[in-house]
């Protein structure tokens, strides 16, 4: 099968992780396929051994990218005659294609948590995403939660073929050997990760015990460092909590592999990759009662009873009482999330769309 992969938006964050591993494993699972990966000129995305097409994007990028995608996609299709196009986010060509278009759905946080986005970013997503929904022939969602949100907020999408394709976690087996010699790790790069709630929970723990677990926040931006630093000082947590910026890949992997536990009380996720990454490495994982988190955790994480600091403190206390069997069961669950499975399910969906269009 010949596939054009639109990876124009896969430059950072979760979407980059997804595309990196999808492309990297595709050659192993389906070496007979020909993938043409479309990226911005100068992109550092590793497109593995697939054919790479770099597009020039004129400024401003918010306008230049869809123009480049639309013109290039039609040129590629005319020249290559591929079977299907895979858009790795719902932002791709604005022109209808003559071959099937499959769209990956990560999450709809911009619609369900609009306060977590700037007005301009919400508007940009609304325009580009809704146009892509109208052009799509099928959808690949990374969780049932994301697919349910798509069908609820955009009912017309429910008439099209859809598939849930979980992300993989087996990439962690190439990371440094896991132990629990480091602090617990939490995230602070988006407000949905709830760093304020975590600090309140650590302050609660400090009133309950003399042994407060050390905690490291990663992904702390320069703009957020001062605010979080002030909160740490106000709660007398300076000896227990450390702030770190976005870490280079190698350093992040070492830090994550050494974590005593993964603290992930996110109030909105499309999947929650650190949950299964942590489990696969044998870490206790703490989550909030959030749909995608509970879905991918499969009952193997310690879940907060509610969204309070007391509930998170209780969950952290419960971490210390997990049995060896519970941790082993969680590790087996995390290890079951493989990128080979992701590739296989994705390709199956693309093949269905190609056959369906051919029959019509």
Offer a concise description of the structure.
By secondary structure, this protein is of the alpha/beta class. The chain has 13 helices and 13 strands.
Index terms:
360 residues, alpha/beta, Rossmann fold, 2 domains, seven-stranded parallel beta sheet, three-stranded parallel beta sheet, 45% helix
N-to-C SSE series? EHEEHEEHHEHEEHEHEHEHEHEHHH
Strand order of the largest sheet: 3-2-1-4-5-6-7
Biggest sheet, in brief?
A: 7 strands, parallel
Number of helices: 13
At the fold tier of CATH, the topology name of the largest domain is Rossmann fold
Shape, per Cα inertia axes: globular
Ends apart, CA distance between termini: 18 Å
Radius of gyration from CA coordinates: 21 Å
CATH superfamily of the largest domain: Glycogen Phosphorylase B
CATH class of the largest domain: Alpha Beta
Low-confidence stretches: none
Structure commentary:
The protein is an alpha/beta fold. The chain folds into two domains: 2-168 and 339-354, 3-Layer(aba) Sandwich (Rossmann fold), CATH 3.40.50.2000; 171-335, Glycogen Phosphorylase B (Rossmann fold). It is 45% helix and 14% strand. The chain is built from 13 helices and 13 strands. The strands form three sheets. The chain has a seven-stranded parallel β-sheet with strand order 3-2-1-4-5-6-7, sandwiched between helices. α1 (13-29) crosses α13 (339-359), α6 (195-208) crosses α11 and α9 crosses α12 (324-335). The two termini are 18 Å apart.
